[in-house]
Amino acid sequence: MPKMVRRAGSDALTRRAGHESAADRSGSSRDHHIGALFEAVLTRGPLSRRDAARITGLSAASVTKLVRPMIEHGYLVENTREAGVPGRPQIPLQVDAARHYAIGIKLMDGEIVGVVADLHGEVQSSHRMRYPDTSPTGVADAIEAMTATLLERSPVERERLLGIGIGLGGHINGAAGVVVESPFMDWHNVPLQDVIAQRMQLPVVIENDVNTLALAEQWFGAGSAFNSFALVTIGAGVGCALVLDGKLWRGVSGAAGEFGHMIVDSNGPVCHCGKRGCLEAVVSDSAIAAAMSHSAGRKISKVSQVVAEAHAGDEDAQRAFTQAGVALGRAIAALLNLLNPPLLILSGEGIAASDLFIDALHAELKHDSFSSTAADCRVIVRPLPDEVWARGAAATMLRHGVMHSLSRLTDQVSA
């Protein structure tokens, strides 16, 4: 996400020199705490103030101070008092779902999926459409048409619409708003954020689509109960997103998580990136079809045919999936050894055939993992439709917009 600059000029220069003032440190701390408190209520709510303090590690007094402006400005609402709990009756807090909305877009090669989502991640409307022109101008046309359709189907008050979140595959530098490289779009250094923002006259954030899916899982899905987790997707490509200590890890330029270009076989097939033996060149849909074509001595262009033949008992087809499972298990073992996460979510369109490779994956994972890293990690298979990816793009916009808005409320928090 683009970083919000709160102060400029000599004050900023002073902080960069390492001489942050006490007032700046206090304000920064309040920004962090109010954001952490909001996310705790969003992902774990309804929450009493007492439970919010326990989850965030803040004092009860701090929670009370931070909650007040969020209630006054409509971000949080108080529910009916809890009954049957020991001690003083507690009033649960909940995020007001209707406080803000965002449009989320999953951008694919020639196809676009869009949703309007509220602050609870509930989809208010959705739409899917094809578009013929994959140039930046053609994509802007498609997003403009998609936005009009979504808002017609689910009218929301303009002042409650935070903006548009866009997720697409490739090296996406969200902080700069630039698509550094997207092979499926054949784009290089495209300033997509500015292109869409100028066209739509709305705030826009762009992000790698696997990162948007991870955010959807962090806020609304399987990752909401975990402070850290990894998400791996397989299908047309191989992707990975990392949530570490509650934060999406993007790397210095947004390229973190290029799991598909981990070398798993130095003598393996050539990847589209030019290297040999990348994970993506072994386990992607096209790679599995190519492996089957090679072993069977006949051209097979679609992975669906390999799936059908494997289910029918064809040994070449089953071997192609077993080899993919071994390679994926080897790569995931390296990931678990490096990060030791408590959860790994396996998703993407390729997991529709997970029954054909999951045993090989688990066997290789157990063999290659160090000490208890495999046993420490719960691996779950999650089939998630394109609309959930688009919802993650909406959540990316919601997080960006809401956190910026909440940071402006910290001046109302008494010291």
Explain this structure to me?
The protein is of the alpha/beta class and 415 residues long. The chain has 3 domains: 86 residues, Winged helix-like DNA-binding domain superfamily/Winged helix DNA-binding domain (Arc Repressor Mutant, subunit A, Orthogonal Bundle), CATH 1.10.10.10; 119 residues, Nucleotidyltransferase, domain 5; 161 residues, Nucleotidyltransferase, domain 5, CATH 3.30.420. It is 43% helix and 19% strand. The chain has 14 helices and 15 strands. A 5-stranded mixed β-sheet has the order 5-4-3-6-10. The protein has a 5-stranded mixed β-sheet with strand order 13-12-11-14-15. The chain is globular and about 70 Å long. The protein starts with 9 loop residues before the first helix and ends in an 8-residue tail after the last helix. The N terminus is likely disordered.
What is the mean pLDDT? 87
Distance between the termini: 29 Å
Q: Please summarize the sheet with the most strands.
A: 5 strands, mixed
Per the CATH scheme, the topology name of the largest domain is Nucleotidyltransferase, domain 5
Could you name the CATH class of the largest domain? Alpha Beta
The shape, in one word, is: globular
